[in-house]
Write a structure and sequence with these properties.
The structure holds two protein chains of two kinds.
Chain A: E1 15-22, H1 26-31, H2 36-42, E2 49-55, E3 62-68, E4 74-85, E5 89-94, E6 106-115, E7 118-126, H3 130-140, H4 151-164
Antiparallel strand pairs in A: 1-7, 2-3, 3-4, 4-5, 5-6, 6-7
Chain B: H1 5-13, H2 16-26, H3 32-36, H4 43-55, E1 59-61, E2 70-72, H5 74-105
Antiparallel strand pairs in B: 1-2
Helix pairs in contact in B: 1-4, 1-5
The chains are: A alpha+beta, B mainly alpha.
Chain lengths: ~160, ~120
């Protein structure tokens, strides 16, 4: 039973952090994010190729591309840039739809100079989007203690509180 | 139109109280009352968290008339687990390629041994 899933419930699974260090100067690690010619060389994982149809690197600008899978399937992708701070940070979000990364992640890529020509890239992906969080709160009033409950449920609440103390 | 199931799972797990409830249920089924005990929040507040978890497919409700014990539904956690594994694999492969590409750009031999 214990090994049927491995979600760590002490951690917020909505924040995923990935780090990698490279033997390359920071300016170069930043640059490979900023040109579709570079991105075509690495963005697709193993066996994938990437074709860009639009690339507009500025805040609010969109990168539209297709990832061609090894199985012949095409994955339409849309990334919108939210922040560009050369040469240290790019923030972007995915659009949804047929994306390979199907949910609305917001990602921050941070590029750190470690000296001696070494650079650390940290990817911090966050879900859900603020809108999704708001929807949950609105739909379930998840942020409130529940003001408009009937007397029966209120007394249940008091019993629960008593047993907490 | 609701979000995709994965979005609902993520949203449900964003809250530490709900994760604690799931952790408790991982040890076996429990009634709302039993679930409320360890938390400094009201029964109705716990019920709301349970509703979010139920809508996300993370828990189910037992038939037993009075207690209606909640149970962990493994399937949603498993699909989240699988998705996270895919996500990590995607980035691992992407960063492997980036590593090779950076070497190529710097005129180093491909598939270096320094990793």
């Amino acid at each position: 039973m214990a090994s049927s899933y491995s979600i760590d419930l002490d951690q917020d699974p909505c924040a995923i952090i990935t780090k990698r260090e490279f033997d390359a100067p920071r300016a170069l690690v930043f640059e490979v994010w900023t040109d579709p010619k570079h991105l075509a060389q690495w963005w697709g994982p193993k066996g994938f190729t990437t074709t860009t149809s639009a690339f507009d690197l500025r805040v609010g600008g969109v990168w539209r591309f297709v990832m061609h899978g090894p199985d012949g399937r095409d994955y339409q992708n849309r990334i919108t840039f939210d922040e560009i701070v050369k040469p240290e940070r790019i923030r972007y979000h995915h659009g949804g739809g047929d994306d390979l990364e199907p949910v609305q992640f917001r990602t921050t890529a941070t590029v750190e100079d470690l000296g001696r020509n070494r650079t650390r890239l940290t990817l911090h992906a966050i879900f859900p989007s603020a809108a999704e969080r708001d929807r949950v709160i609105k739909e379930y009033h998840a942020d409130k203690g529940g003001g408009n409950l009937g007397p029966a449920r209120r007394s249940f609440g008091q019993i629960a509180r008593l047993s907490v103390n | 139109m609701g979000p995709d199931p994965l979005s609902a799972t993520f949203a449900a797990l964003a809250d530490p109280t709900r994760r604690a409830i799931l952790a408790r249920l991982a040890g076996g089924e429990a009634s709302v009352n039993e679930l409320a005990k360890p938390f400094a929040i009201s029964g109705p507040a716990v019920s709301k968290h349970l509703k979010v978890l139920e809508r996300a497919g993370l828990i189910t409700r037992g038939r037993e008339a009075q207690r209606r014990p909640r149970r962990l539904a493994l399937r949603a956690l498993q699909s989240l687990d699988a998705w996270l594994a895919d996500y990590r694999r995607l980035w691992e492969q992407r960063l492997d390629r980036l590593d090779d590409y950076l070497d190529t750009l710097q005129g180093k031999p491909k598939g270096d041994a320094s990793r």
